[in-house]
Inverse folding.
């Protein structure tokens, strides 16, 4: 067993980054994720492992610093919150087009605009439908606990290098700010230049020598036929993600007549709702998508033929509900319940919505 600590979600992002051998973090402070960089600065990993930690002059600058470091085969990451991720959107599209691995953490806050510093899940469409331009996809992980905030940093780097693609950890202000017991991984060393050459040598720009080929990192291609081929290669990669790396959790679904679908901290609330409903004799289950992209459409489609209806619960105006409806494909009823503006519903509110929209509807 690794070291156990009581930690805040944002703090454990920083701890996990250091321990998994991250080479560099570039970011800019914004509530409710500022503790990520604050914790990194306090831990001073540049004195031990040599990890670079730098506050850039803006979110735009930070994502392009990530681009440069990722292009050399390094494990690099950034974090921000909703408006800051919007500023990074162009750079994220560049990285997806150049096929560069990195981890991006979004601890969501309410919007639109500057909105509020309170929790939200209103960046679902931005994360899963492409916040920037072009036909690209991220791989999006949705943590529901402080332990998953830790674990998904490690997993995020593994998946980023597996697919040479940016990975986003889509958290929210609840998970970012709450404290829980977490098991930390043991310290792993940063990759040596020899390891980088072995892992990323086929594409990374590490300098042309007698023993190394020249590599050019770019998302620009003026020949349309080559650009189409690039796009087709990317789409094949995204299809591979859907085959190999869909993740989800099912709770009390085996005999369920109704299923709630929720991600992140909303799923934690809904887990209590399942208990409340079952105590009243209503057979309710929960499906928690862990990867929002690729979306666990097959398991939802499977249950669509078995249950009387689905209730999608989100801290937004209804975004994931559209993906659920596509997966269900008209086989049963799909309803939505959510709160906005930073308001977090309680389990009894969700249970009342279930009764009103599905059971008694």
């Amino acid at each position: 067993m690794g070291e156990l600590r009581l930690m805040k979600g944002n703090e454990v992002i920083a701890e996990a980054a250091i321990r998994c051998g991250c080479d560099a973090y570039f970011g800019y402070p914004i509530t409710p994720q500022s503790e990520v960089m604050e914790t990194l600065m306090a831990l001073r990993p540049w004195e031990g492992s040599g990890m670079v930690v730098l506050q850039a002059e803006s979110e735009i600058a930070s994502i392009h610093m990530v681009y440069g470091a990722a292009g050399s085969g390094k494990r690099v990451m950034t974090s921000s919150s909703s408006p800051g991720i919007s500023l990074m959107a162009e750079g994220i599209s560049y990285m997806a087009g150049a096929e560069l691995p990195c981890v991006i953490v979004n601890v969501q806050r309410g919007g639109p605009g500057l909105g509020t510093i309170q929790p939200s899940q209103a960046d679902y469409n931005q994360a899963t439908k492409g916040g920037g331009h072009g036909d690209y996809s991220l791989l999006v992980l949705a943590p529901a606990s402080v332990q998953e905030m830790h674990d998904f940093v490690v997993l995020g780097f593994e998946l980023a290098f597996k697919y040479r693609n940016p990975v986003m950890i889509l958290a929210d202000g609840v998970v970012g700010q709450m404290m829980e017991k977490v098991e930390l991984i043991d310290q792993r060393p940063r990759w040596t230049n020899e390891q980088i050459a072995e892992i990323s040598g086929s594409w990374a720009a590490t300098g042309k020598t007698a023993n190394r080929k020249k590599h050019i990192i770019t998302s620009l291609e003026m020949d349309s036929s080559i650009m189409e081929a690039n796009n087709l290669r990317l789409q094949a990669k995204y299809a591979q993600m859907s085959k190999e790396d869909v993740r989800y959790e099912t709770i009390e679904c085996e005999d369920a007549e109704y299923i709630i679908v929720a991600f992140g901290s909303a799923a934690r609330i809904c887990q209590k709702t399942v208990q409340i409903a079952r105590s009243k004799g209503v057979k309710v289950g929960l499906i928690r998508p862990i990867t929002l992209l690729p979306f666990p459409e097959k398991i939802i489609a499977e249950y669509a033929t078995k249950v009387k209806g689905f209730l999608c619960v989100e801290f937004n105006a209804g975004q994931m509900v559209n993906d659920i409806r596509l997966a269900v494909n008209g086989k049963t009823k799909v309803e939505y319940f959510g709160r906005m503006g930073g308001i977090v519903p309680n389990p009894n509110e969700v249970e009342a919505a279930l009764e009103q929209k599905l059971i008694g509807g």
User: Anything to note?
Assistant: The domain at 248-359 is CATH 3.40.50.920 (Rossmann fold).
